[in-house]
Amino acid sequence: xxxxxxxxxxxxxxxxxxxxxxxxxxxERPRERRHLATWVSPRDLAGFVRAALxxxxxxFAALYAVSHNTRRFRDLAAGRALxxxxxxxxxxxxxxxxxxxxxxxxxxxxxxxxxxxTLRHLRPR
Length: 125
What we know:
It is a single chain. The chain is α/β, with parallel strands linked by helices. Helix content is 35%, strand content 13%. The strands form 2 sheets. Strands 1-4 form a two-stranded parallel sheet.
């Protein structure tokens, strides 16, 4: 958030064009149930970055970069604002993910807010 605030300041003060991409779960392929909503594929992230670097008249924008996932929490406004439409869908991998049939609680809720969830992802694999 601090970097986004600085980006907004510089965009407004010096008329710069700044896109802050809020990157979802960036993995080669989704590996857990939450990724079915938050995943951004390498191809789609490359598209978002390319679009952000070449966008004109953007001013300041903080945009969610997420693939065209069937279960996504965020809309695809980021892609439209940049002129990019994501193409990949985590749903193609749902059959490989344990518990994928269970619904997700929401973007900032449920088991994903527990300290144990974050700590598990900080440990080396």
